[in-house]
Amino acid sequence: MNNMDFCPERDGFVSVDPYKLTDLNPFSKIGKEWMLITAKDDKNGANAMTASWGGVGVLWNKPVAFCFVRPQRYTFGLTETQDTVSLCFLGEEYRHTHKIFGSESGRDTAKISKAGVSLKFEGDTPVITESNTVLIGRKLYCDYLRDASFTDTEVRDKCYPEKDYHRVYVYEIVAAYIRKQ
Ligand SMILES: Cc1cc2nc3c(=O)[nH]c(=O)nc-3n(C[C@H](O)[C@H](O)[C@H](O)COP(=O)(O)O)c2cc1C
Question: Which residue in 12, 32, 34, 64 has the fewest CB atoms around it within 10 Å?
Answer without folding.
Answer: 32
